[in-house]
Amino acid sequence: MTTPTQPAEQLSTTTLLRFATAGSVDDGKSTLVGRLLHDSKSVLTDQLEAVEDASRKRGQEAPDLALLTDGLRAEREQGITIDVAYRYFATPRRRFILADTPGHVQYTRNMVTGASTAELTVILVDARHGVVEQTRRHAALTALLRVPHVVLAVNKMDLVDYAEPVFAAITREFTAYAAELGIPAATAIPISALAGDNVVEPSSHMDWYGGPTVLEHLETVPVSHDLTACHARFPVQYVIRPQTPEHPDYRGYAGQIAAGAFRIGEPVTVLPSGRTSTIAGIDLLGDSVDTAWAPQSVTIRLTDDVDVSRGDLIAPSDDAPAVTQDVEATVCHVADRPLTIGQRVLIKHTTRTVKAIVKDIPSRLTLDDLSQHPAPGQLVANDIGRVLVRTAVPLALDAYADSRRTGSFLLIDPADGTTLAAGMAGGSFAAAATGIPGPDDAGWDF
User: What is the rounded distance in angstroms from the CA atom of residue 312 to the CA atom of residue 307?
Assistant: First the structure.
């Protein structure tokens, strides 16, 4: 979003940060987002006037900044966030895509959607209530989704007289829990979203705090968008064969590079078939290029006339992922109906969707102490658990710890297309917490 004080040419030189907010009901997520947008001057005049008008009709003297994000009628009536609200704003230092996610346990599944592509999660805690079950749930999902950076925003400090001991106690409890999850680090910031303390401007009520405001941290946290260092992966989305007089023999494989880089002359393997070839050409926006990298959308041409179709994965021959029909993963169940052993499902991985069956549900995670409840038999809405899925045909999956893009998948009900669960292949934070060997995911910067 370009504001009057920020020319478009200036925005082109700034970096982009995707972040999500999470927390329990009434912790003040929408108010924080509204305050962030308002105080950073990212709200258009007509938007602010609409919020002021809606606030007056509700008998409020001051504008209710939560209305800047709670746009659904049901959200405004109940005073809670139900769906994920995306907002785009910018400062001279950085551009932002913000996902304001629901806090109610019923809508925890929406938090998975908002945080799945986030590079930072802001977890809010009400200073009066401290760390509650939903706080732990959101921290666990943040760890499960391998979000690289976490901010603990202790909100409503004005309601506890801006007391430092309250902030310190909450920070200690959350930090200990985060360490058990394997979260690399969490930055704690005491705030009052309603009053604007430490959101954009430093607070005059908390001189004992010497750290950054929320916006300062968002503007300065290191963000890596370099996907070229990751394992190169190209899921084929479409096969292009014009068969015209101008291009009688053209055969190209179109899609978006999920990670890494590809070069002309590079030996590649097509999975799951295992056939090998060499990259003969790369077409980008109508031009031929020597090299292409994530997340560019390109068409790759091969030297050999091999059988390649939608859903296949092209990878460097010396760095190809393993192919398997037995997928072991951690899933977050998001559907109202349970996931049970023996259930037939569809598994969607990158551009491929195949039939599968749930062979086993070894454990369900207990959020209170991070213990594993063995053999639960089923997973219900918002449960986090381990599953073993057998696919009808082989899939080329990476471990989620190696790649958030090619290590993730969806389980879908074949009857009506309902999404049942979001899955992360390989080990998880739960494996690390219980001492079961898992992948080396130190740093989570991928």
Answer: 10
